[in-house]
Every structure is written in structure tokens, then in C-alpha cells.
Prior knowledge:
The chain contains four helices and four strands. About 45% of the residues lie in helices and about 25% in strands. It is an alpha+beta fold. A hairpin with a 4-residue loop joins strand 3 and strand 4 (about 110-120). Helix 3 crosses helix 4. It has a single domain (about 10-120), classed as H-NOX domain (Alpha-Beta Complex). It is globular, with a radius of gyration of 14 Å.
Amino acid sequence: MSELGITQQQAADAFGRHWAGSYAPKMYGVCYDGIRSAKEFLLKLDDIHVATTRTIPNARPPRFKYEDVDENTLIMEYQSSRGLMPFFTGLVRGLAAHYGEKADISSLGVDKVHIVFSKA
């Protein structure tokens, strides 16, 4: 990323804004139907990954475990051998922006984050 003068997280955040705010709603619009917040979407993300990969041979999307702390707070465990946690957090921020929210993300280890959602 040094060629661009940005950090890996900045690149991941830009990717997340594009993916969650532009590309995915056009390509996977049905996944967004009826969902009113980033937290609500994230709580369905594991099921979305399972359902969408049934028809994709050899697909290995990340899996997630959740702790639904309160109305605005979620703890997520990212389960993937790819080690793309910066891109996951970038996608969370992009998803929050898509819903007019802000996501304050704190690391709880290599594969776990604490997310607090608020209005942007």
C-alpha cells in the first residue's frame, strides 16, 4: 500500500465502502431486502454466506459467531483461514455507511471484534 500512500486498513475501508454500498446491493440485492441496519445485516451474514454458497462449488466464505450485546453493540468472531480481518472490518464500516450509521470497531484479538453502531 506504500505505493498509494495509504495503510492497509485505509484500502480495506475504501473497498468496504464500495462493496457494501454499491456493488453488493446491485449484485445481491435480495440479501439487503427488509434489513434496516448494519447490525441487522451482520446478524444475518453467516446465514447469507451459507445460503449463497450452496450453488458455488468449493466456496469457502468466512463464517461468523456472534454475541448480541445490546441494541447498538455486537461482538463478532471472524472465522477464516484467509486472515483478511482488515477487509472484514472495512466491510463492516462500509455496511454501516450504507445504512447511514457509523461503526466503532475495537479488536478483541486476532479474529474477534467489538462493534458499536451509532447514527452517522
